[in-house]
């Protein structure tokens, strides 16, 4: 059974007399157990799709199902955890109270809630701030408590809209680790982002949305390939580089230098460097931005 099915959904908004076509026949299918990344630029229709799945708004046309049940049926959402794009809480509540509220709304008993809250507050590093009102939380702390609230009831499907926005690099690593652990223990995960590295590090399948339509669906290996612009080879600077690329070399330190090579030249450059016995220290993929990724994929 599919965890999520969106069949040919359309959604138009009217704003000050103007019609905005947010979704134009979007198809999206997510298998159970998948870690699915929903990648697309600003305004592509990611949040609109998620809001339709959560039944905050209704599609004009098409059908949406969660674990085989129509998403308009409240029962379809009993097994879901959800983190919206900009979570808003009653700001006089403390972090711990928000978790209690979330647990209660999912029918958990107090003992269970206390145990799970303790564990989650520690995991999202809010133990110290747990009894502070959330109006005193930073953006990243709000995101962390929202994440904990979304998973307190061990959902089977976790839906997150731009979960990593507002997080610092350490927060991003923490979220990615937690998402990986949840997915390994069987939770299906669906999250949106417009940041390629956030998606390619953890997702197994990536749906690319543009102008309200599914533009392409690729796996993580393809995303890594298509999103790589070039490679930066770092080597120990002991010899002279072959003529073809010696002008591109940049000195990094006393011992190390680097040379940037395109994807198509990587093989050639590496074999030449090997012939000359260069000591290669690292090969780092250099990433494209989302717009350039679209160009590459459309030319594929
Ligand atoms: N309530 C609304 N009223 C009018 N237009 C809307 C409304 N909600 C969304 N839109 C429009 O629908 C389109 C899709 O918006 P959506 O929020 O789904 O994009 P998104 O992919 O989530 O973008 P972002 O990466 O910026 O979050 C945009 O053109 C947006 O302006
Ligand atoms: Mg959005």
From TrEMBL:
InterPro entries: AAA+_ATPase, ABC_transporter-like_ATP-bd, ABC_transporter-like_CS, P-loop_NTPase
GO MF entries: ATP binding; ATP hydrolysis activity
Highest taxon in the source lineage: Bacteria
Keyword Cell division annotated: no
Sections of the chain in a coiled coil: none
Domain ABC transporter: 4-236
Keywords: ATP-binding, Nucleotide-binding, Transport
Entry's family note: Belongs to the ABC transporter superfamily.
The name this protein goes by in its record: ABC transporter ATP-binding protein
